[in-house]
Design a protein that fits this description.
Blueprint (H helix, E strand, L loop, with lengths): L1 H20 L1 H6 L2 H8 L3 H5 L7 H16 L5 H10 L6 H10 L18
Helix pairs in contact: 1-3, 6-7
């Protein structure tokens, strides 16, 4: 869903910028009006995404490697594994990175130990 929203925002911003390049639209239509016609919020037009730092990418890559090796590790065990390797991050930031990468620990729920009725 976010990819679709980003694509719509990015393409809409390009369309507004193309409108701004023409003399006619510069004079007659404001950015707010152009965004309204395209179905965009003006805040989406002015938003510039922040680049992800190299350190963050390195940590996220290592989280992915650890999770691939041990998919049952949650944020706390991944934090401990990273801490042993020299990364000093809290479990909240590890949890945020895992959410961004859509990683969830695999663990049995409470009903897996019940016997089946045949």
């Amino acid at each position: 869903m976010r990819e679709i929203e980003f694509y719509r925002t990015a393409s809409g911003r390009c369309l507004v910028e193309e409108f701004l390049d023409t003399w006619f639209c510069k004079k007659d239509l404001s950015i707010r009006r152009q965004c309204g016609l395209l179905g965009l919020h003006t805040s989406n037009f002015y938003y510039d995404p922040v680049e992800v730092s190299g350190e963050t990418l390195r940590i996220m890559h290592r989280i992915d490697e650890i999770f691939t090796e041990c998919p049952f590790y949650g944020r706390r065990l991944i934090r401990e594994a990273l801490r042993r390797e020299g990364f000093a991050h809290g479990r909240e930031s590890i949890q945020t990175f895992m959410r961004q990468m859509e990683l969830r620990a695999i663990y049995p729920n409470g009903k897996t130990l019940e016997e089946c009725e045949v």
